Structures are given as structure tokens and as C-alpha cells.
Amino acid sequence: MEKNRNTRLLSLDGGGIRGIITASILAALEDRLNENYRKKTGKEPKRHLRLAQFFDLLAGTSTGGILTCALLAPHPDDKTYPKYSAHEAVDLYLKNGQFIFTKATSARIPMGTAFYGAKYKGTNMNAILLKYFGELRMSDLIKPCLITSYDIEKRKAVFFTQHDAIKKGRMYDFFVRDVTRSTSAAPTFFPPGSAKSENDLIYHTIDGGLFANNPTMCAVIESLKLFGEGDKLLNPSDMFILSIGTGTINKQYKHGKAENWGIVSWLTPIIDIMMSAVSETVDYQLKKLYDSINRKEQYIRIMPDLYTADSGMDNVSDENLNNLYQAGLTNAMRFEDTLDKVAGILLEGYEE
To answer: In the 8-state DSSP scheme, what is residue 234?
Structure first.
């Protein structure tokens, strides 16, 4: 990390297949970094500049956790350089979304008012994560990161971190494919996941979005000690934060109908509402924090518009995949000035 600059954090929300929008915005930012570098230096970068090179810590929940690990996966020929560009992260969703969200044949069999089985096969998700992450462990990732999940047996929040895997050793070192499966194991959509450390510690996991769909505050708290000096914690005024959501959800639940809902009727709405409320609360807290210390320009939250895309986390029809991709491109244009500003901040002090 260059001296005399703020510690830089990138935080990515959960949201299922809506991660296409997040990835598209990240791809636009990566393009802007390369374009601005050319303008600034008058030359091509030695290698394509990639986002992970410019942040000190990345945090992600669910689909944001998958994106985080994709951005941090090391290149096989250079362990300090990212393997995947942000554009390749977009392709992860566009090319594999329909396979990941393949309905389980035994799922959702009605019996009275209950349903049995997760809606989608965990095996398909596992295959894609194995394809992208192989035998990588958290200690192999190129930068510090935090990925959220929840252990349903131990009844505790779980934070998978690259830096702890390196500093504290085998007890904290998990396969990346298991970490990404854990953070994205949304109840009712996928079966619970599991992750076993190199030292045989096992977590039985579900989606981190149930308590931290927007993991930005988790990233801030993690950074206080990680990037502090000795016993002195890092001051929030010395952080620059970019937080990206997966789209504003305006789906309404009418009071008149909800009055008569029972357990089954509330199941899907309560998860939807809870994840949105958690994200909004964290955004509110950080806006208040950075306003109070007169550093509001150091906290940037991008919440894209869905436009014609469906808000469902699992709508992978050809039409909706295209709508999500178009929404991503449109939001990249909508936030063009913001992304240009962020690129300028990230390039400050950068030298190859």
C-alpha cells in the first residue's frame, strides 16, 4: 500500500443473479482505470489493470462474495496478479447462471402447506465454483478479504478472511470453493453448505445475507485493527469506501394481503425484506458516520436501478439475463461521473 493515502475498501452486496449488474459496474470501473492510466501516463499499462490491485480489502456477501473471490483469485503465472478481469466475472453469471439455477426434480413437492427440498441443486453450484476456484484456499487470494456466512449448528456468524488464513494458519484456511458456496447458500434456494479448514474445523453454513447482505460495516470494523499501527486502530477518516448494491427493489407487499399471511406466505417476503432492510441500515449508518466527520466524499455507495430486469434472485430466463446485463451497462453510464471520480482516486500514487 502506498503511503499517505487512505486505506481503500470495496464492498459488494448479495443479490443472487442480480450480481450481473454489480459485475458490469465493476467492469466499467476497471475499463475506466485503464483508460485514465493511459491518459495520465501517455502509455499502455504493462498488464491490464485489474480492480483488486487498487483496494486494500474486499468484502462480499453471497453473490458479492463470489465476485470478491473471483477478483482476488491469483493468476497461475503470477500469484500477485489477478487471474480474472471484471469482464470475466460478468461472464461467470451470463454463461453459468441458468446451469446454477437448475431446479431440483424433487424440490418443492407440495404436501399440505409445506414444501420439501431446496429449490435448486447444490451440485450445479458446486461444479461451477470448482471450475473457477479449483484447489485455491483463502490463503492463496492476493489481498485481504472478508466473506460472510452463518453456521446453523454452532449458531454463530462466520467471517472467512484471507489475512487470518495467512497470519493465523491452518485453522482459518478454507477452500475458496467452499467459502463461496457457504456465503451463497440462501435458505429455500440452495441446500446449506459446509466448509472444512485445513485443520479440520467445520462450519455448516447458510447465506451471509441473512445478517450482512451489505457487508460494508463488517469491512470497516475489520479494517480498524488490520490496518492500524500497533495498538492504535485505523481511523475511519483514513478510509475510502466503495460499496455497490445489486439493485433497488421496489416490490410491494400489500398490507391487506399480509394481514392474513401465515408462516408459508411470509417465508419469501421476510427474506426479501430482511436482506433489503439490512443493506439500507448499513448504508444509513455509514452515511451518518462520514457526514459526522466531514468526510462524506470518502464513502461512496452505488445502488443501481433494475430498470426492466426482474428483482428475483433466481430469474435466469434468457430475457431476464439480457435485462440484467442491459441494466448493468445502463447503470455504468448513469454513474459514469462517479466511476470516473473513483478511478481517479484509485490511481493516485499508483506506479507499475
So the answer is: P
